[in-house]
Amino acid sequence: MKYTKTGPSYWTKDVDDPHGLLAKSKLSVLMQHDTEASRRDRILWDFHLGWSNAEYEHTSLASVRLIHEVLTDRSPTGKSPLSQRHINEGNRALCKRGYITEIDKGAGRNASRFSINWDLLTEASEGRFPPSVSPEVNANGLNLSVSPEVHASVSPEVHANTIPVSPEGYEDLFTSTRLKTGLEVNGNEVSAAADAPAAVAPGAAAGFDKCWCSYGKYGSKVASKAAWANIQNPDVDHIAERAASWCASAKPGQKRMPFEKWLAEERYDEADRKIPTVVKMPRRRPGATRRDAEIEDVEFDGRLYRVTVKWNDARKDEKKEYILTMSTDAFGQMLRDLDVTCANDILYRRVLADFHIAADGTETDKWYRYPDAANDNLSREGESEDEAGDRNLHWKDAA
Questions:
Q1: Host H or E run for residue 323
Q2: What secondary structure letter does DSSP report for 55?
Q3: What ranges make up the beta strands (E) of the chain?
Q4: Alpha carbon 199 to chain centroid distance?
Q5: Other C-beta atoms within 10 Å of 69: how many?
Q6: What pLDDT digit, counting tens, does each position of 279-310 carry?
Q7: pLDDT above 50: residue 103
Q8: Phi, psi of 46 (to 5 degrees)
Q9: Which of the 8 DSSP states describes residue 392?
Q10: Which of 49, 237, 258, 305 is positioned for an S-S bond with 331, CB 3.0–4.6 A?
Q11: Which run of H or of E encompasses 100?
């Protein structure tokens, strides 16, 4: 097939190894044009591409905990950009959209094995893209197929000199740190960023100003313009509406996320921030001891379930993690209490538990889903106070 700058054959040009560095780079570029992909999806897609290993038949063998640990190690701040819950949900989303397939489901602390859809490039070269990636020309007349001149980062020559240096034992192909000056740091090497932000075009200035004002003019206007320039076909009305919502949800005088970071992290694509002033908690069972916990792990040995929980209300000298041993019937009742059908649906979820011991020594437990309005406002590991939402919640126990 003859190569053209914007033709479908871009996706397989010079790709001699379907599992090689260039193929992984182009697969990463393909995800950038997925209209349904969030920042979470892109982070996990790049992780699995980089973590795939020939020793394991080019699959990615990684548990949620391992992914979280690696992302933490790679982060310049030392904090993972995703919580374990978000990683679990993101893996499912990638499986649902056909990017990866979970071929071996991890049990307990054992890792899951994910196969990469390496055929995506061949399909893209034939004009067959994932449903959420459109090969059609967009409103600005730009074809979503990518030319090597525009995306220099996918050429073999560029990658030969800009392979990131990762912690020992980790194969990190895509993680890098971008500076405000337009330089990119890859391990020990500093080079000009291939896609350094351009200035805001005159025709887009009005849209930027509208959103900048909607956000309350909070942050660096110069850096915000650079972040705005990186957004393809911004929906000005939608972004302005979301910016105004975020601005209104902040407490007066409290430090919050600068507009440039808000744009770069695509916060305008997240659900509306509706922060309740009062969250009504489930009524506590009389005589029961209530605990606030997060479910970390579930194991089954063929006879008993072992549920590892992390106490959010751990007492002094009490271990943060605890293993609850349950019979099959007791575990089934727990799932029914939480209105789910399988163990995966409760992993990394916050719950409330009422533990009750009757006068005859009979122990009965009652489990509750933590109220969504409150659960959505949890400070996740790796999130700042503003990123998780300005929290001014007053808990009300109905007991």
A1: strand 321-326
A2: G
A3: 59-62, 100-104, 112-116, 177-178, 183-186, 189-192, 278-281, 289-300, 305-311, 321-326, 350-357, 363-369, 394-397
A4: 28
A5: 15
A6: 577 888 888 899 999 998 888 888 999 999 99
A7: yes
A8: -65, -35
A9: -
A10: 305
A11: strand 100-104
DSSP class per residue in 215-279: TTS-S-HHHHHHHHHTSSS--HHHHHHHHHHHHHHSPTT-----HHHHHHTTGGGSPP----SEE
392 Cβ contact partners less than 8 Å away, ≥ 6 residues apart: 251, 275, 277
Tell me which DSSP letter residue 57 carries: T
* Rounded Cα gap, residues 78 and 73, in angstroms: 6
- Please check the confidence at residue 372 and state whether its pLDDT lies above 50: yes
pTM attached to this predicted model: 0.45
* Paired tokens of 385: 């106070």
Q: Residues in the chain, how many?
A: 399
Q: Return the residue matching tokens 């055929």.
A: 119
Span 336-369, pLDDT tens digits:
999 888 888 888 888 999 988 888 877 888 999 8
Can you name the residues that pair with 306 across neighbouring β-strands? 299, 325
- Residue 370 pLDDT: 84
Structure tokens belonging to residue 40: 């979470």
Position 170 pLDDT exceeds 90 = no
8 A C-beta contact, residue 87 and residue 38: no
Distance CA 23, CA 121 (A): 8
Structure tokens at 107: 């049990």
Strands of 112-202 (E only): list them.
112-116, 177-178, 183-186, 189-192
C-alpha–C-alpha distance, residues 25 and 23, integer Å: 5
pLDDT at 201: 55
Please give the C-alpha separations between residue 163 and each of 17, 25, 49, in angstroms, as whole numbers: 17, 11, 14
CA dist., res. 86 & res. 92, Å (int):
10
